[in-house]
Every structure is written in C-alpha cells, then in structure tokens.
Amino acid sequence: MLADGCGSQNKNSTMIATFGYWLTNCAPSNVKIVELIFPVPGHSFMPADRVFGYIEKDVKNKEVILYPSEYIDIYERYGTVRKLGVDYLVKDWKSYSKDIMKPPGQYHFKFAECKRYYVTRVKNKPGRFLLRGEVNYKSDLGVAKSVLKPSVSSTSEFGIRDVPPFQNKVSALKLDDVKKLLSNHFGEDWISALGTNELLFYKNVLEDTNIGEPDYEEHCEYLPEVGIPTIGLLENVVVSEELDTNTDESFAMERDIEPRVYKPGKTVLKKKTKEAKPQCEIIYDASERLIIDKVYFFEKLKIISNHTPQFGCNLSNLNIIGETEIGLYAKLKLSCDMCKAEFIINTSDPHPTENLDINTAAVSGVTNAGIGLEQFQGLCTAMNLPIMTQQMFDKKHVVICDHWEKTAYHAMARAAERERQAAIEEGRVKDGKAVIDVIADACWSKRSYKNNYTALSGAAAIVGRKFGEVQFLGVKNKYCCICDRAENKGFEIPIRLKNL
C-alpha cells in the first residue's frame, strides 16, 4: 500500500491498527503480510494529486459556493462521490487503536522516522500481528515484534464503534466565521427572513454541531516553500487565481524518467494604469539550490543579454518563469518583460566534450564512494539540491559500468604489453615469444552457516610479477537469474553474465 506520509491522515498508529484488524480478521488466509510505504513528503507525486488539482482549480473559479451540492457537482466531474451516512459509515478506528495498541512512543523502533511498515500474521495465533518499521526504502534492518498491549490476546476482543455522521467537533472560531459570512451575504436576520429549506444545512450545522477543538494524533510533514519576486517589490499587486498546477502533461512528466516539470507557484499581475498595459511577473520558488557550470552558464547568458537592442533589452529584463529538472541540472525558462521573448538555458552542459556531464559524474562518484542512491538522495536533500530519480541513476550507472569495463580492458592490455617488452629487454624469450612471470590466484566466498555452504560466484586474477599490474581478471557464476530466464523463454542475450 502506498500513501502520503501525513501523520494526521495515514502515517499513524490508527492506520496500523486498521490493517492489523483486517489482516487478522478479514483477509484471505493466503495473505500473510501487508507492506505500507510512505514516500518522502514534498518529493513524491501521487495519482490522486492530479484529481485534487482539478478540483481546486474549479473551486477557485467560483466566486461564491453556497450549497454543499455545488461541491458534490464538482467532485463528480473527476471521481465517484460516496456520501457519509448514506453510502458508508465511519468506524472509530482511533479509539480502537488506543484500546489494543501501545502508544507509538513505546514501540521497539522510532515510529515517525520510518518510511516502510510491515504488518505480519503471527503463526498459530490468528488474532495477533507483528509490526516492523524500516527507516530506509531498500535496506531491511528492522525487527518484527508485537505492539499490542500485554493484556490484549486478540485483535477481535474489542468492538469497533460506528461514528455517527455529522458529529465531528468544530471549533467555536470556525462556527463564528460561518455566522459572519452568512450575515454579510444575506443580512443579520438571515435565519428568519429566508425560507425554512433554503439554508437548512447551515442552520443544522450551527444548532447541532459539537463545539470543541478537533484533536489529531500527529501533524502533517511538509517541505516549506519560499517565494520571492524576480523583479520589484510586492506593492500594488493582486494575485491571479488562474493557476493550472496539475495537468495531464505535468502528471505524465512526473512519472517519466526525465524531464520533471515544476511550474511556478503564483502569477502576479500589476494593476492596470493608463500609461501601460499590465505586465506579468512571476513569484518564483527560489528555495531550492542548483549546481551551475559557471563558464557554460555565463556564456549562454552573454548570448541573450542583448537579444533585442531596439527595445533596450538586457539581463535585468529577464524573469524565470519555469524550470525543468533533469537529474542534478535544470533547464530554466526565461522571459523578457520588454519584448516578451522566451529563452531556455541549461544550468550545466548536458553534452560536454572534455569531461562527464554532471549526472554521469555524480553516479561515478557515488559508486566510487561505496554508497548508493538512497544515501546520495539524503545528501542532496540536506543541501537542498534536486534529487536524482531511480531511473536516471540506473541509466547513468549502466553507462559508467560500460566505460569502466572498456577502461579495465585497455589497462590490462597495456600492462601485458609492458611486461612483454620488459621480458624481451631482459632476453627472456622462448620460440620467439616473451616469457612473462605472473602470479595467479582465485577466490570464492564461504558462508558461516550450513555445511560447506560455498557461494555460487568466484573470481580469479593474474598479476604481472615485475610491475605488479593486473593482466587479467575474470568472474564466474554457476547461476545467473538473467541468463536462466532468457534460456527458459528462448531469448538470446548479447552478454553471458555467468562468465565475465
């Protein structure tokens, strides 16, 4: 299961109790474990976000929404509407979780820091479950233990109460705001002056709602965004509501390898004056840092610095209106507020001729350092840099490995030629061929469990005695899943991974 990592919605002990009850009482017997995955907040795109974006856009386009049915009409355009109290009932899972489970602070792991949770059946105890938390997405280091209270022997001991519809607590301040809005719109005597059915919903809300502060288990996690104007101050401006933050294009781009398109936060329009037409300025999210190839970037800026001399356009007239992130570098979309021309500038050369591009160089350094993508993503997050996707990392890793293999081949060929020339100079020649002294050895790993558990993989190397350089390196595997699957399906693979 995948869900947003928001503590007040999904990432909490109430959700764990819900899945624990389902697994031990409702799930088929062949379902043994449930995995809950929570992506990094602020860096992940859920399919439901696109629907929320469409709904938000339609709601903002309406100046006044008076009746609940108007919201329902908007919701039905993008999904199926199920009404509380009519189509379904809500269970009080929060009280149930408090009855059967320990508080999160007493768990055997730090609940809030985990990214994955595993709810597992207990063998021979169908009414109990174990919980394991993992702080990483790939490494499994956690231990599964029970989080039920010592006095609870089964998840079915306590009943689950229904929550009556329209019984949620609403703060007194919110109710007061509703009264003020209705009074401003319909007058102070709106309850008596209007018909009995026209505003019945609001009358019932004000008369029957339980006044109080709703309590939540945890607060939502989010990444703050800092917006600043690219030109001028925020004086005498109004915010345009015409924003399209979730489109089919942005949804498709987010799920592809590259590029990922991030649109600006808000559009600011100057008030109309008699002297000039309103100009569009952009409040741009400048909180994220970027890696810039200074020579390449400034050369590109020089090219467009004086793009329209007749209008007097220069760098001070350029605004950043969009950004496309491609791994660690980005394509910045610039617009001139004088001539309205638009330009695309890369922050780093995507195809350098003398060295590696920034993404390939980063993957090479990560591999040399002995870390993986997850550690690299954590490093980038700490520095507020863009995060490389798994697809991008895998793509560049294949390129790096190919280069390493070719480099190793040429290095071994040069080492063998060096040993050969040294042998000829020393007169160690037999039948016209140089005689080279080498040292050879092979290795394969042994496991510390079972009887004589030898690994299915081994390696051998030949090293020149005189210069100590590798002449040959080979790896042999008794089994390779890629080769085995290809043989079973009748496919030919260009490289036999069993023998490298």
Count of all domains: 5
**Ranges with pLDDT <50 over ≥5 residues?**
215-284
Q: Mean pLDDT, nearest integer?
A: 77
Count of beta strands: 20
Helix content: 25-40%
Strand content: 15-25%
Q: Largest sheet, order of strands side by side?
A: 8-12-11-9
Domain Mutator-like transposase: 296-491
Protein name: Mutator-like transposase domain-containing protein
Structure commentary:
The chain has 13 helices and 20 strands. It is an alpha+beta fold and 500 residues long. The protein is flat, with a radius of gyration of 32 Å. It comes from Euphydryas editha. Pfam families: Mutator. This is Mutator-like transposase domain-containing protein.
Question: What would a concise description of this structure say?
Answer:
By secondary structure, the protein is an alpha+beta fold. It has helices at 13-26, 47-61, 68-78, 93-100, 172-186, 190-193, 200-208, 248-255, 294-304, 358-369, 373-382, 390-425, 481-489, and strands spanning 33-37, 90-91, 116-122, 125-134, 162-163, 169-170, 210-211, 227-229, 237-239, 260-262, 266-270, 280-285, 318-326, 329-336, 342-346, 429-430, 433-434, 438-446, 454-464, 470-477.
Could you list some keywords that capture this structure?
500 residues, alpha+beta, 5 domains, 4-stranded antiparallel beta sheet, 20 strands, Mutator-like transposase domain-containing protein
Please give the structural blueprint.
Blueprint: H1 13-26, E1 33-37, H2 47-61, H3 68-78, E2 90-91, H4 93-100, E3 116-122, E4 125-134, E5 162-163, E6 169-170, H5 172-186, H6 190-193, H7 200-208, E7 210-211, E8 227-229, E9 237-239, H8 248-255, E10 260-262, E11 266-270, E12 280-285, H9 294-304, E13 318-326, E14 329-336, E15 342-346, H10 358-369, H11 373-382, H12 390-425, E16 429-430, E17 433-434, E18 438-446, E19 454-464, E20 470-477, H13 481-489
Parallel strand pairs: 6-7
Antiparallel strand pairs: 1-3, 2-5, 3-4, 8-12, 9-11, 10-13, 11-12, 13-14, 14-15, 16-17, 18-19, 19-20
